[in-house]
Amino acid sequence: xxxxxxxxxxxxxxxxxxxxxxxxxxxxxxxxxxxxxxxxxxxxxxxxxxxxxxxxxxxxxxxxxxxxxxxxxxxxxxxxxxxxxxxxxxxxxxxxxxxxxxxxxxxxxxxxxxxxxxxxxxxxxxxxxxxxxxxxxxxxxxxxxxxxxxxxxxxxxxxxxxxxxxxxxxxxxxxxxxxxxxxxxxxxxxxxxxxxxxxxxxxxxxxxxxxxxxxxxxxxxxxxxxxxxxxxxxxxxxxxxxxxxxxxxxxxxxxxxxxxxxxxxxxxxxxxxxxxxxxxxxxxxxxxxxxxxxxxxxxxxxxxxxxxxxxxxxx
Length: 315
Ligand code: MN
What we know:
binds manganese (II) ion; Jelly Rolls; 7-stranded antiparallel beta sheet; 1 helix
């Protein structure tokens, strides 16, 4: 997706530098984007800017609709990141300036590596299931990889764990000995967790990594703390495992990874290191340079919002 909550200032985002296990919960920012599409932004936030290399987390839906496109995000550019599209319901059709097309469906991953620059569109296909519920996450690319050649990948058959007490599917990186063979450039994990009714889901974690939970539905309890939807729950580092309990069925997403060690600047759909890079990418897009066209999309592309060069801390 495009960043649908644009703001004129760039956001400077660094890691937390956590040195211990902790639980800190920060409310997401919600926005009604019209036509019933509600977006909840869990990253970036003022208090939480990066979790490992994860720098952006929007959830949208659940939504039911008929006779229209619930999602229609016209061509827009990205640099310096990977977009991770993970659906719980419905479908989203991706087209990009490389000529790649991919249909995101529940439990299948659309992964776009923007690197030096790519443009894409995302829209509800016809026909469709009339439902939409999912996540758009971004992974910041490390310095050595952030200018790499762009790529698009679609993955099925991602690893599933059933450790008792629920079901886990790993869509990026490594968790509990399971490895998602998806294109990645930093040590990380991205996984969907379903906790059974009355279940206790236990998972080992890498204690050198930091982690966070986003609750999609229901409520889970971690070490006596109730974790609710509508927030990002940052778990810190030095945590060798996780035990999630739920009285009802609960549904969450775990993100994490090695502390990123670089601060990034996020503006609109760009992840960079300086405001000059952001300004240059914006100019390239506005002047139809560098990013290419999304030939498969019917309609106008998105215009870049105004940009104020001075970066501010994330809200
Ligand atoms: Mn996008």
